[in-house]
Amino acid sequence: MDKRLFLQIHPDDNVLVALQDLAPGLEIAFEGRHFSVVSGVKAKHKFTLEPLEAGAEVRMYGVLVGKTRFFLPQGETITTENVYHAANPFTLGERKLDWKRPDVSAFQYRTFLGYHRTNGTVGTANYWLVIPLVFCENRNVLVMKQALEEKLGYSQQSRDYEPEVDRLIKLYRAGATVEDILNADIAADREQINGKRLFENVDGVKFLNHEMGCGGTRIDSDALCGLLAGYITHPNVAGATILSLGCQHAQSSILREEIAKRDPNFDRPLYIFEQQLMGTETNLIQEALKHTFAGLMEANEQRRAPAPLSKLCIGLECGGSDGFSGISANPALGYVSDMLVTLGGAVILSEFPELCGVEQELSDRCVDETTALRFMELMKTYNAKAEADGSGFYANPSPGNIRDGLITDAIKSAGAAKKGGTSPVTAVVDYPGVANNPGLNLLCTPGNDVESTTAEVAAGANVVLFTTGLGTPTGNPIAPVVKLATNTELFERMPDIIDINCGAIIEGVETIEQTAHRILDFVILVASGIAQPKAVQLGQDDFIPWRRGVSL
Fold it and tell me: What does the radius of gyration of the chain's CA atoms come to, in whole angstroms?
């Protein structure tokens, strides 16, 4: 089968996407048009379908994504030098809630094996948390980590690189030169994680260090308490040990209030220790260790049991995006979103800087005007703050994004929004709130991968599906993060961090629906504890709270 050379994403688009490298002079025939590629186009980049005058609109995905700086001939590659970011304004429009539900007959009666909590949520894992309320306690959290992790059978011994260092030391002592060192093969045989966990029904003890809790604004410390409450009440968490200094802004009383907002009848083990009350480090650590051990004994009584797919809450994330993200992995994820919504589950679409340019569509899909106005307000407020600090949403694309074809924020956003599918928006939630309402939830977060993933999990996501075109190892301490490659080359080059390949869509050998079915099949295995995503295998426990300033 001949691979396709290019693609028009939407019939209103006036640019085409190169699916392969296109040489200068290559003849293009498309819907009665015949022209030549002017400068050559790298795969993932876009070229003009028609001549464009200076200031002309550039359209992709059927929306405005930029304007030309000067005249561009037919067949010319669009770049940051000849096109700049532009997006349509948005207003309160009519409700557009009609949508085509996908066929979910293959999944209608499927279940996953999860941990059922008394508040009605179901976890896909069973973790214990150790968290500092303020950065002053980070060291004590690490002391507990060193004391507990290996002894309880949770250390990641398969990732130990000490044998490689031992070989380098041996070479040095034998008189090796710098060149010898650089050319040496120091690959070591990997031992498997010795893994006999003392508490077989507890997936791990997770230690969530951060740099907040005091010294910043009260808004940030209050938001931190809300975020931590989201983790403590999360369905994947059996209980938590909290270390507090005592005098910081992020008080334990605020944390308890935030927990009560999320779960008024919270009944899981929660132990809070204040160092300034307890005196010595020895008193603090010994009491924390005893209570944590007792809590783990209680958590170990939990067992997995069947749950309907409606109990899944999936976070939708992308990072290291490329020019194929919006036509392979993101639409496939959008189809998964629509399937899960049809089955009664919840999905979370976040990264508000990456929704710039598609605000009108999303606000029109909100279930009522109040929800639409909330979304519009959050978008405008966030962008205005960014603009005031000299870096609006237009500055969101990274050098890697631009290098691989996402040259404006609107191009990036139009593709990123595809993760949310086509269903109505049932809720709009500000950080660090809960967003597990059945249906599609919009959660205000930065575009920063780790900050956004951290927030989605606090909002209730018990699995995160993460698309990437360039490759990123992002994971989360308590929710499995499944990585989806937009292209086969990435999947084959970075198999240690990628779980699923969506590149077959680009190659024309698999449909979006077929890929979506593969994704949901894997999600069920992950949610049941049968399969482990690469991020979990690697112990990729990324956790960064959002300081409520500008982060794109």
Answer: 25
